[in-house]
Amino acid sequence: MFSLRNLFRNDINIMTTEEILYNEIKEFNASDKRAWMVTGDRYYRCENDIYNRRIVRHTESGDIEDKSKANNKLAHGFVKNLVDEKIGYLLTKDYALKCDNEEYIKKVKDVLGKYFQYTLTRLGYEASNKGIAWLQVYINEQGQFGTMLIPSEQCVPLWKDNTHTELDGMIRFYLQTVYEGKEKKKITRVEYYTPHEIYFYILNDDRLIPDIEQHEGGPILHYKKGDEGKGWGKVPFIAWKNNHLEYPDVRFVKSLVDSYDKSRSDIDNFIEETKNLIYVLKGYGGEDLAQFC
User: Fold this and answer.
1) What pLDDT is stored for residue 8 in this prediction?
2) Do 2 and 20 contact (CB within 8 A), yes or no?
3) Is the model more confident about 292 or about 234?
4) How far apart are CA 244 and CA 163, in angstroms?
5) Phi/psi of residue 265, nearest 5 degrees
6) Per-residue pLDDT for 284 more than 90?
7) Are 201 and 217 in contact (CB under 8 A)?
8) Distance CA 57, CA 237 (A)
9) Which of 70, 117, 153, 180 could form a disulfide with 272 if both were Cys (CB 3.0 to 4.6 A apart)?
């Protein structure tokens, strides 16, 4: 359970909102949860751990990579196949809405837009590979309702309850390429969403500073209706969970995939080395076999 409003403060040890947000980002970046998100995405792309395998030789000065040995790296796309089959079964057919008022259903579909089925499919992939997916809702400059899938590894949810059903806030952080004069550099932008407002920061070393390029750092309300600012009254992010544990699919099969990758690669290495070690020696007149080698 997390709430900035409920944090204990006193005159001796006071943390600013910016310090709290920075600590949450730092903790999330180092967490097992985010590490599995990255792993799930890698394994779906068939970038398995086998690609990092090194064949080493033990020496007195330490272990060194033995490049004379065969080191075939056979990665298998089992995770991709499993996720593709799952999404194909669950989210291939168009979604259906049921209501006695047909006119109401038509209006809801018009608001969601004709590409919402594609958005649902993408949410399915994101949740399967990363444990949880996030759909942000917004009003665009034309005053139209829109939704946007935000990469899960960019989102730090601040939950109100231990069952993770209601948000107290959301921190989103992401890298962006900008130009300073003629120099191109990357900066980390941070957005903090509350039920009514948005704050904007830049992560500078180990602290957050207001991002004056983004609405002078905020806060601003979620959207405008005409010239009047409005807030949703809720944090404008919707969670799509892969399961109640918020675990990605890869977490349940990774050890099996790694074992299969390793065993198949070992077999391939053995076959390659066996071919290279078979010699037929005929008519050799030398006395020292070492001279032949």
Assistant:
1) 46
2) no
3) 234
4) 9
5) -65, -40
6) no
7) yes
8) 51
9) 70
For the whole model, what pTM was predicted? 0.86
Q: What b/e readout covers 250-279, taking b as 16+ CB neighbours within 10 angstroms?
A: bbeebeebbebbbebbeeebeeeeeeeeee
Tokens for 122, please give them: 């993408």
List the chain domain ranges: 4-250
- Cβ within 8 Å of residue 148, ≥6 positions away: 135, 136, 138
Q: In sequence order, which ranges of the chain are alpha helices (DSSP H)?
A: 17-29, 32-44, 78-91, 102-112, 116-130, 250-277, 289-292
Nearest residue to 41 (alpha-carbon basis) of 188, 248, 245: 248
Mean pLDDT for the chain? 90
For 42-71, write each residue's pLDDT tens digit: 999 999 999 999 998 888 788 888 888 899
Secondary structure percentages of the chain, helix, strand, coil, to 5: 40, 25, 35
Spatial contact of 211 and 217, defined as CB atoms under 8 Å apart: yes
Strands 167-180 and 155-159: antiparallel
How many CA within 13 A on the CB side of residue 124?
Answer: 19
In angstroms, what CA-CA distances link 39 with 126, 144, 254? 12, 36, 9
pLDDT (mean) for 287-292 = 60
